[in-house]
Amino acid sequence: MEKYELDYSENIVVNDDVQNIRVRARRKGLPVILFLHGGPGVCDRHWVLEKQSALAEEYTMVCWDQRGSGKSYRPEIRDYIPTVEQFVDDVEFMLEYLTGKFGVEKVILAGHSWGTLIGTLAAYRYPDKVAAYIGQGQLVNGTKNEAESYAFCVREAQRLNDKRGMKMLEGNAPVNGVYPTRKAMMAQRDCLCKYGGESYKERKGLVGSLLIPLLKSKEYNLGEIIGYAKGALYLSDVMWKDVIGVKFDEDIKQLKVPVIITQGRHDYNTPSSVAREWFDALDAPFKKWIWFEESAHSPIKEESEKWGREVLAALKEAIG
């Protein structure tokens, strides 16, 4: 069994909300990477720790279940509608907390999907606390993102002569990134999974791609999985307009921290063409774009060995 000097889960109070973090490091005193999961509400510590624990040799890995998510789910989250700003404030708190707790000046942010939204905003606003920003499934412009994602599903349904998929998608195109109903959005995401735009190699529906790995994981018990599901459904529903309103291509044209983008060639959840256009125009002290040819939305698990290797090399190049 692997032995780590730091390997624990704990609850902390983040801006008056009890939230859970998971820490792993071979020894004390290592630089810190904070993983910002997707969703909102779709935690990923179970496969980050499974697929990327080699990083714990050189970094203190911190997996954080955000407000209303996973182990941080509380029924009280349903008493209000959280905002993007609250989550960015929570990231700021985490940066302050982690620099103090682990005695480092700055923290590396590694965002995935929704995590890239709050990660990019945090890197933009608090560069003095961010050593580098790593994006994966980079969200840039919500309206462009969903238009291209939906168009991909329609093309694939027609190409495959998937009549059920075509029926599910018909008349359910997003307007300014917003789908007509939650059912319409879930239908599009289910098609996205089946057609390889979410996971390129293992093409499963939402249940197979999200729920089954959770049930097999040792990171969450059954009660926590139920809370996970409740939080993810609620947050994605009530926050969607806020989330999809992002326009980094208009609002964030410079970051004062090193930027590393790890993007799956076949990602149509957050289409790579939209992310690449923003990246190419972005002004940053260091920029590196890394393609993953056999991945879609999550190269961290689809090409896990390559992702870990490339990220370690890019961080050494960017910050030493």
Low-confidence stretches: none
Overall mean pLDDT stands at 94
Strand content: 15-25%
Structural class: alpha/beta
Q: Mind sketching the topology for me?
A:
Layout: E1 6-14, E2 17-25, E3 32-36, H1 45-52, E4 60-65, H2 84-102, E5 107-112, H3 114-125, E6 130-136, H4 142-159, H5 163-169, H6 182-194, H7 206-216, H8 222-244, H9 248-251, E7 259-264, H10 272-281, E8 287-292, H11 299-302, H12 304-319
Parallel strand pairs: 3-4, 3-5, 5-6, 6-7, 7-8
Antiparallel strand pairs: 1-2, 2-4
Helix pairs in contact: 2-3, 4-5
Folded structure, characterized:
This protein is 45% helix and 17% strand. It is of the alpha/beta class. Strands 1-2-4-3-5-6-7-8 form an eight-stranded mixed sheet, sandwiched between helices. The protein starts with 5 loop residues before the first strand and ends with a helix.
Summarize the structure.
This protein has 320 residues and is α/β, with parallel strands linked by helices. It has 12 helices and 8 strands.
